[in-house]
Structures are given as C-alpha cells and as structure tokens.
Write a structure and sequence with these properties.
By secondary structure, this protein is an all-alpha fold. The protein is about 70% helix and about 0% strand. Strands 1-2 form a two-stranded antiparallel sheet. The longest helix has about 30 residues. The two termini are about 30 Å apart.
C-alpha cells in the first residue's frame, strides 16, 4: 500500500511538473491545444455527450426502455449479469459512449438496480468512444474513410463484449445468478435536478479534456515523433487519434490502439462519475486484454488481403496476406470451446476428493493454467 501511494505521488508530481513547464516551453502549442479543446467542448462534444448524460439518467429509471435494450440482453447474460437494468446500461454505452454509460451504471447502483460488483463487471463492456466520435471524427475527418470508422467502432465494441465476458468467466469472484433482495423503486428525481447534475458532470469532463489535451500536444512537440504519439495515446484519446492518423500507413492501426487504451483522461473521468463503491479494478484489467483483441478484430475486418508477388510468377497468381475472416473465426471459436472444455474437466477433477496426479500432487487449476 505504501509503495502504491509512493507511485501515485510520483505520478502526480510529474503531471504537475509537465503542466507547469509546458506553457513556458511551447506556449503557442499549448494555447492552440486549449483553443481546440474549448472548440471541441463547445461544438461536437456538446452535441454528442451532454444530451446523452440527460438521457442516461432518464432511461435508467424507466422500465419501458427495456424494449429498446432488448438486443443487448443476451450480451448481458453472456457477461454474467441477469439484472434487467444491465441491458439498459449496455444500450446507453453503445449509443453514447463511456460517460453516459458510467453515469447510468452509477445511477443504477444508487437506486439499487445493480450491485457494485455487477456494475464493476459491466463497465468493461461499456467504456468506449461513442459511434459519432469514432465514425465521423476519427473515420471521416481524420482517416478520410467512413468505412474505416465503422470498422473501428465494430472492433472496439466487439472487443468490449468479449473482454467483459472473458473476465467474468475466469475471475475467482463469480456474480450472483439470482437477486434475492429487491429494493423498492425510488421516487424519480425532478427534471431540474437531472439537468443540473448533467451540466456539472459535463463541466468536469471538459476540464479533464482541456488538461490532458494540453499535455498531449506539448508532448507531441517536445518528444520524438513515435514517443509523442505514444504519449498522446496514453493521455487523451482525441489527441492520440489525431497524431496517430498522421503516421501514414499505420494510421488506422494506431487509431484502433488509441480507442482501445482510451487514455488516462477517460479513466479519470469514469472514476469521477462513478461512486466510491465501484472499485473499477475489472475495468483496469480489461484495458490490457482489450488492446490485442481490438487490434485482431480490426485487422480481420480490414478490406483487401491480396498483394502482388514476384514477377517470375504468372500474372494470375496472388498471395494472400492472411487467412479469410470466416476461417479465422472458426479457429477462434474452436480455441474457445477447447479452453472451456479444459476448464470444465479441471473443475470436475478438483471436485473429486483425493484426486491426485501421477506424481502424487493435487491438481490445481490455478497452478496448471
């Protein structure tokens, strides 16, 4: 615990040092980054985020919204959450992104519709960038391809659901399958309270965006090209995607990585929105698993796959860069079934008393896996 506090203090010290030095080292760059951040907060972000902050608070308390969230109910079941409210949170995250989803999950915990453990397990499937930002801003504006933006969003949301399901499957602490205690539905808050809370939450989120956008812009100028892009990806998703799109042929792959990492700014915004009962530990673990999954899905979805070979071969001979998508998905499904069968067999062996291996040692799934 003391070592963790020490690292936290060191990280805060370096952030304070960078925030104090950058305005003097590169004042023009920092000023431009802050102006762009204000334009973002007063323009596209205001339209794509603030209404959903209000909508999330309203929909999470309306049982009638279960009809809209019906396609997301199987996803919630795969993650391991049977509460009816879980599908609503997933629907809000799919449409509005991480901030409305975190707000909906926090409201569900306060109302007793979700437990803190269920909300923690649900957040890895909800923390993502909204479709308006991924498709329009990243795909159409930065990469000049709406198709790439759609593929990026599919890869991001698919990796979200797979990561949340895998974390729940292999975690030691399983979620309850039935809810024995049901609280009485609370009285819906007044509309003025909802609007005031949404406005305060939006102002806090804009503060994070301005601060980390200034740090990312300054790092992109002072550090080498590759290090500056990496630093921006780790700090703030908007600046990370902006710098990643300028890297040439690797622009779409690096944008996918930036959308997967989400940056320190997004994680702190989620921490600000969510109550203290949520530890967010599954969300932090999910970021490590989400990156390779999203990159693999995006690579499989990329159009093309053929390239010319040496001139000594006939003109009709083409070399495939990778296996077809359907074959790759079949191999992935086979690996998943094999892993589940192996885990089921190990659990059956562990449940038998005195089950030992040939060497006389007890079989333990933790040491074996």
């Amino acid at each position: 615990m003391n070592r963790l506090c020490k690292w936290n203090r060191m990280g805060l010290f370096f952030l304070a040092l960078a925030a104090g030095v950058l305005p003097f080292a590169v004042p023009d760059v920092c000023a431009d980054a802050l102006r762009e951040g204000l334009a973002l907060c007063g323009g596209p972000l205001l339209l794509s985020l603030f209404p959903f902050l209000v909508v999330s608070r309203l929909l999470i308390q309306c049982p009638e919204s279960d009809f809209l969230a019906l396609p997301f109910r199987p996803v919630a079941w795969c993650i391991g959450i049977r509460a009816p409210c879980a599908a609503r949170v997933l629907c809000i995250g799919f449409l509005g992104g991480f901030a409305p989803a975190a707000s909906a999950a926090a409201q569900a915990v306060r109302n007793g519709q979700l437990t803190a453990e269920e909300a923690d397990a649900l957040l890895p499937a909800c923390v993502c960038s909204g479709p308006s930002f991924v498709v329009l801003t990243v795909g159409q504006n930065l990469l000049d391809s709406t198709e790439l933006g759609i593929l990026l969003f599919i890869a991001q949301i698919g990796a979200n659901y797979l990561t949340a399901a895998l974390l729940n499957r292999f975690t030691e602490k399983h979620l309850p399958t039935s809810r024995t205690i049901e609280r009485e539905p609370p009285v819906p808050p007044r509309l003025d309270v909802i609007l005031a809370d949404a406005a305060m939450t939006y102002c806090k989120l804009c503060g994070f965006i301005l601060f980390f956008r200034m740090l990312a812009a300054g790092a992109g100028v002072l550090l080498p090209a590759g290090a500056g892009t990496l630093c921006a990806i780790l700090l703030e998703v908007c600046s990370g995607c902006d710098l990643a799109s300028r890297t040439g042929r690797w622009g779409s792959i690096l944008c996918c990585a930036a959308l997967s990492v989400q940056g320190l700014s997004v994680l702190l915004q989620v921490r600000t929105i969510c109550p203290a009962e949520l530890t967010l530990r599954p969300l932090y673990r999910a970021r490590v698993l989400h990156l390779p999954l999203s990159l693999a899905i995006f690579y499989l979805l990329l159009p093309g796959g053929e390239t010319d070979v040496f001139s000594t071969l006939p003109e009709r001979v083409l070399l495939m860069r990778r296996v077809p998508v359907d074959c790759a998905l079949l191999v992935f499904a086979g690996c998943c079934m094999a892993a589940c069968a192996l885990r089921h067999a190990i659990c059956q062996v562990e449940q038998k008393p005195g089950a030992i291996n040939a060497g006389g040692c007890c079989i333990n799934s933790k040491t074996l896996l």
